[in-house]
């Protein structure tokens, strides 16, 4: 009996010792650890967007810790801490959302007991007015009864604008018609019936004068969209621009998304103003393609997290034009000029080309220009050719390679031809020179039957853009012109300098001639011995970045050196690859007068890779 009682007591003691030992916090080597202590100065916090100091709390601990949240859009910092007190700042949380920050001490051993605290963060939802719609257009003002669908400037019966800011809206655009043959559907609020139809690249509609309520800074823009025969691609099929307080320069482009890749689907985005809200907004939709329709355009006050932040106080970044060479050696005979014009469909004022013209040789030194899809919106070359003087030059300064009756274009009373025949360079040793465009006329397309001609195309017929042309390898020159618009033009823009080199002034011709017959205005004009072309663009072509924002690995440049056939030995076939040079080589061949593509890293202009250019 005694032995049994002793054994039982011994067993109980052993069990008690085991339990006690298991409750001790130890490290992996069996040493005792200090109990982890963790505390937060608050259990909950209401986010205050106007007072950042109210969005902080203090974590106290005797060990290291880490924190995480169950809400991905809840932003806070820091997410780790050590011994002592650490101030944690809540940086952002969407309006109307609640999230939890969980703080936990780091595990110091396999048996370590971690301490945990939580902080609940909330942010009030924006109190929206009962009527949040600022502008809504479903295009259901009426039904067109004519034969062909009307363009938006031919009929206003479709207008059915409503909303608190819709009282003074106006509509403008180009190549956009009102059609009801493919009504909107498959999204909430689809009105069916009429829709805006974009008939080609650069077609656009601008909705101006929408009044914004000054007490709200966040807005949601939505619309129904489809593109027949292919998927509608946000940011490509249609680009969206905002301008403010009467402006129409398309200063702010919006990123947006679309809810489906199917036929009709809703697209949209949320944008907010970083500072003061403007009085009015103009929304412009621009197409890149045809068979595109949009409907049910809605702008409303929103409490959602913005995807676009618009800072009207932030000055736009201004960069030098990448294509314009920097003059390294001054020459009193060089006269510089910039010609600007309006694109044919999108109606954007753009630089057409810059030129350096030699008023002694009466021929150009170089013409620099950007090449982009917006310059190709028209039909092609103006007919008949609108040759005329450059209005920024005196007659004595430029080659007279235009008729004296150029003002009578298109010379309808003379069968479409000028009366004056003295508009060419003279023959030299039996050779005739073509009036060769440095900037190809077809790369600045206009409206063929328009009178007066579109400036964009017309300006390419100024003498400042024309050189006496007789290439030794004309096929190489032609291939380069085709490659520019066929392969190298991109959404990032391709930049070009096309120029002339005068190895000597021994070869000359005369202007204002007809064959070998001179006129009273004839003067000597020096003929270039070579022409050159250099090109610069991003490798990908669609980065959306300015050249000056790119590093060397993102850029590529190449040049071509083209001899003229001044010995009249007959034209020859050439391989385009044999005429390729680096941009730096072209600089040296032209005597170092100019720095081509200034600001571009040297590694880009010092070398080239034919494969990059598809050669």
Write the layout of secondary structure elements.
Blueprint: H1 2-22, E1 38-40, E2 44-46, E3 56-61, E4 65-69, E5 75-77, E6 80-81, E7 84-92, E8 98-105, E9 116-122, E10 133-137, E11 170-174, E12 176-179, E13 195-198, E14 204-211, E15 218-227, E16 238-244, E17 252-254, E18 257-258, E19 265-273, E20 280-287, E21 292-301, E22 308-310, E23 326-327, E24 334-342, E25 349-358, E26 363-371, E27 434-437, H2 455-458, E28 466-469, H3 474-488, E29 494-501, E30 508-510, E31 513-514, E32 517-518, E33 524-526, E34 530-538, E35 555-563, E36 580-581, H4 583-589, E37 594-595, H5 602-605
Parallel strand pairs: 2-9, 19-22
Antiparallel strand pairs: 1-3, 3-7, 4-6, 4-8, 5-7, 8-9, 10-21, 11-14, 12-13, 13-21, 14-20, 15-19, 15-21, 16-17, 16-20, 18-19, 23-37, 24-25, 25-26, 26-29, 27-28, 29-34, 30-33, 31-32, 34-35, 35-36
Q: Number of DSSP helices?
A: 5
User: Mean pLDDT score, rounded?
Assistant: 90
Q: What's the count of strands?
A: 37
Categorize the overall geometry. Answer: globular
Helix percent band: under 10%
Q: What proportion strand?
A: 25-35%
């Amino acid at each position: 009996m005694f032995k049994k009682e002793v054994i039982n007591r011994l067993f109980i003691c052993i069990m008690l010792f085991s339990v006690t030992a298991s409750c001790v916090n130890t490290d992996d080597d069996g040493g005792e650890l200090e109990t982890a202590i963790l505390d937060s100065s608050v259990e909950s916090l209401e986010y205050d967007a106007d007072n950042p100091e109210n969005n902080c709390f203090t974590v106290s601990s005797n060990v290291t810790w880490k924190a995480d949240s169950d809400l991905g859009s809840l932003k806070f910092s820091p997410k780790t801490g050590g011994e002592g007190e650490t101030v944690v700042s809540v940086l952002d949380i969407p309006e109307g959302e609640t999230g939890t920050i969980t703080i936990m001490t780091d595990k110091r051993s396999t048996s370590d007991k971690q301490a945990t605290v939580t902080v609940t963060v909330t942010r009030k939802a924006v109190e929206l007015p009962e009527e949040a719609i600022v502008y809504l257009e479903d295009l259901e003002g009426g039904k067109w009864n004519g034969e062909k669908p009307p363009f938006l400037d031919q009929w206003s019966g479709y207008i059915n604008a409503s909303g608190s800011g819709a009282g003074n809206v106006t509509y403008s655009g180009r190549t956009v018609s009102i059609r009801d043959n493919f009504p909107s559907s498959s999204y909430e609020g689809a009105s069916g019936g009429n829709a805006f139809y974009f008939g080609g690249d650069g077609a656009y509609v601008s909705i101006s004068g929408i009044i914004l309520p000054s007490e709200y800074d966040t807005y949601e823009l939505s619309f129904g969209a489809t593109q027949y025969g292919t998927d509608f691609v946000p940011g490509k099929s249609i680009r969206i621009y905002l301008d403010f307080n009467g402006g129409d320069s398309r200063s702010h482009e919006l990123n947006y998304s679309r809810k489906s890749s199917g036929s009709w689907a809703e697209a949209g985005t949320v944008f907010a103003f970083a500072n003061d809200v403007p009085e009015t907004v103009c929304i412009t939709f621009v197409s890149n393609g045809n068979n595109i329709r949009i409907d049910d355009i809605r702008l409303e006050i929103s409490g959602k997290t913005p995807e676009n932040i618009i800072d009207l106080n932030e000055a736009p970044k201004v960069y030098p034009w990448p294509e314009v060479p920097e003059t390294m050696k001054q020459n009193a005979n060089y006269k510089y000029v910039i010609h600007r014009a309006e694109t044919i469909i999108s109606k954007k004022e753009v630089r057409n080309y810059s030129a350096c013209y030699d008023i002694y040789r009466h021929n150009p030194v170089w013409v620099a220009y950007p090449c982009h899809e917006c310059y190709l919106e028209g039909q092609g070359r103006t007919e008949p050719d609108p040759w005329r003087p450059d209005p920024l030059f005196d007659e004595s300064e430029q080659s007279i390679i235009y008729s004296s009756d150029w003002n009578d274009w298109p010379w309808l009373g003379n069968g479409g031809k000028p009366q004056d025949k003295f508009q060419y360079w003279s023959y030299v040793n039996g050779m005739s020179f073509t009036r060769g465009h440095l900037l190809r006329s077809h790369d600045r397309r206009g409206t063929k039957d328009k009178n007066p001609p579109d400036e964009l195309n017309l300006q390419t017929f100024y003498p400042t853009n024309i050189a006496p042309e007789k290439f030794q390898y004309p096929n190489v020159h032609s291939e380069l012109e085709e490659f520019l618009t066929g392969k190298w033009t991109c959404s990032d823009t391709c930049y070009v300098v096309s120029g002339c080199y005068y190895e000597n002034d021994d070869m000359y011709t005369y202007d204002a001639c007809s064959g070998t017959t001179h006129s009273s205005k004839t003067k000597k004009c020096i003929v270039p011995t070579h022409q050159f072309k250099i090109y610069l663009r991003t490798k990908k072509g669609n980065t959306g970045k300015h050249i000056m924002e790119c590093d060397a690995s993102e850029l590529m440049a190449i040049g071509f050196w083209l001899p003229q056939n001044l010995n009249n030995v007959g034209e020859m076939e050439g391989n385009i690859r044999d005429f390729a040079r680096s941009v730096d080589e072209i600089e040296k061949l032209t005597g170092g007068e100019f720095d081509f593509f200034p600001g571009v890293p040297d590694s880009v202009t010092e070398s080239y890779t034919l494969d990059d250019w598809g050669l």
